[in-house]
Amino acid sequence: MTAILQAHDLRWSVRGRTIIRDVSMSTHAGETVGVLGPNGSGKSTLIRLLAGLRPCESGQVLLEGRPIGRLSKRALARKVAVVEQEASSSLELGVEDVIGLGRIPHRPAWAPATTADRERVAWAAGQTDVLECLDRSYSTLSGGERQRVQIARALAQEPTVLLLDEPTNHLDIRHQLELLSLVRSTPVTSVVALHDLNLAATYCDRVFVLAGGRVVAGGPPSTVLTAELIADVYGVRARVEPLEHGVSIRVIEPL
Question: What is the percent of the chain with per-residue pLDDT over 70, rounded to a whole number?
């Protein structure tokens, strides 16, 4: 399989504290990869490093074989879309305008939106169940609605790689399932930071588990998410039962 996004020996620190330690991983065309780990394990930092939002202290990120640091911001934005945990705007933008931000990398500077842009915005809004919100102000939306609008903005961007940091935050159960089903069905390569192990087991082709900023396990969820690993990384006792496609995880008690 073709490697689309690769990380080699990434390291990043803040105020003398190392957050990401020698992390290496790769993603293949069209697959959905989960980044798992407890709070403070480095998931959000890794997503930002993969997106080029933070420079690596050492190591490098390759996009289709090229170091992302050598790509212009516009070229990178045509390839990589990012949805962070808390997306907010200090501007009074309409929802349609927020989703339309995803089209900016695809047209000349200061050029107005085209018919194709507007069609892509409407498509993305439909995919994320926010069509009825297009005429509303972004600031009036609930947390779940804002999250879906930001994902629509990322889809409107037509990326090769989609990076999502806890995308199910603020979403009810139905929208969590719909969102991850949508992510999995798209032809893009997706890297998704998740807390919910069952969602990861259901929707991810492979997972990488972080602990203390390091990758401690990687591979298909059915082989990685064992009771022993969950105990070691999360400090809880869990029952892991095999399913026809994946595993089911039931957390029983803290250790």
Answer: 97
How does strand 17-28 pair with strand 3-14?
A: antiparallel
CB 63 within 8 A of CB 5: yes
Nearest to 179 by CA among 207, 150, 201: 150
- Smallest CA-to-CA distance from 85 within 165, 25, 181, 9 is with 165
pLDDT digits (tens, 9 = 90+) for 60-99: 999 999 999 999 999 999 999 999 986 665 568 999 999 9
Nearest to 209 by CA among 21, 3, 18, 36: 36
What distance in Å separates the CA atoms of residue 35 and residue 42, rounded to the nearest whole number?
9
- Domains (range + CATH), the chain: 3-254 (3.40.50.300)
Q: How many CA atoms lie within 13 A of 253 on its CB side?
A: 1
Closest CA to 208 of 41, 93, 60: 41
Q: What does the block give as tokens for 46?
A: 């890794």
Instruction: List, in sequence order, every residue forming a beta bridge with 161; answer none if it has no partner.
Output: 80, 189
Residue 78, C-beta contacts closer than 8 angstroms, at least 6 positions apart: 105, 106, 157, 158, 159
Query: Which of 52, 60, 64 minimizes the C-alpha distance to 5?
Result: 64
Is the pLDDT confidence value at 169 over 90? no
Please tell me the number of Cα atoms within 13 Å of 113 on its side-chain side. Answer: 17
Q: What are the tens digits of pLDDT across the range 188-236?
A: 999 999 999 999 999 999 999 999 999 999 999 999 999 999 999 999 9
